[in-house]
Design goal:
It is built from eleven helices and no strands. It has one domain.
Length: 269
């Protein structure tokens, strides 16, 4: 794999993992455009996931450290900050659906649903979910900053929809949060933190499987540059998207997804 190609794919992964436009869907489409489907290795895929997970971990490091200390204080009998412990449990509960469904369905989704045509249609479907979530949010003017445990579980099911290429993890969690009473910014923050263990686990599992099978790509330079590109672009995307959603809706992303789907379908005809 060429370094330039790796950097392009890394930037695409970093940006689209957190913008509500689907990282898997865009990678499939970019690979088709660049003609690099055969050289986009599983080891590279795993490293890109770990790089974007690192970006989330770094950006929300204070929150994750507070939750870690809350866990330690609880098991050692020391006083615990309630809101930190609450957030820890909400993230654990919200992670369960995607973790369980991903364990059983990820391999199936990675093969059956990697068609550009199917990605185009799921881009449209995701856009409709965004528009419906925005309509619900505006109709009821929700102002909740933290979900309940039941709502966290439901947001976790929305996250599981991202197993389908083209749906978007961040888009589904933000939409779920909006429908279930959160402000747009709170839904985005919770969705990003909820993504951390799933992205980390997915990338780590792929990497471990490759090492166990002796199939890890030893062409380190492109992998390293791709990972750096994914990390930097992911970190910047998280930062600026959180600022964007304070005053803007998801409608612009819905329109983009529909336009992209139309372009893809025309291109493939």
């Amino acid at each position: 794999m060429e370094v330039f190609t790796a950097i392009i794919l890394g930037i695409v992964q970093g940006i689209t993992e957190f913008l509500p436009i689907s990282s898997t869907g865009h990678l499939i489409l970019v690979q088709e455009v660049l003609g690099v489907s055969d050289i986009y290795g599983l080891s590279f895929d795993a490293i890109l996931h770990l790089a974007t997970a690192l970006a989330v971990g770094i950006y929300f490091r204070k929150d994750f450290l507070k939750m870690f200390y809350a866990f330690l204080y609880r098991i050692t009998g020391r006083p615990v900050e309630k809101k930190d412990e609450q957030l820890m449990w909400l993230l654990i509960i919200g992670t369960i659906p995607a973790a369980v469904l991903g364990f059983f369905l990820e391999g199936y989704m990675d093969t059956i649903f990697r068609s550009p045509v199917l990605v185009a249609w799921t881009l449209v479907l995701g856009a409709l979910v965004f528009l419906f979530a925005e309509w619900i949010g505006k109709r009821y003017e929700f102002q909740e900053e933290v979900p309940t445990k039941v709502r966290a579980l439901w947001i976790g099911f929305f996250q599981a929809l991202a197993l389908i290429p083209g749906m978007s993890r961040s888009g589904m969690t933000m939409s779920g949060g909006l429908m279930l009473g959160l402000t747009r910014e709170a839904a985005a923050r919770f969705g990003f933190m909820l993504a951390f263990p799933i992205i980390l686990g997915s990338g780590g599992k792929k990497l471990l499987d490759l090492f166990n099978a002796g199939a890890f790509d030893t062409n380190i330079a492109p992998i390293l540059w791709g990972a750096i590109a994914a990390f930097v672009s992911g970190l910047l995307t998280v930062h600026y998207l959180l600022k964007f959603v304070k005053n803007h809706s998801l409608t612009v992303f819905a329109v983009y997804r529909i336009v992209l789907a139309v372009v893809v379908l025309i291109w493939l005809v």
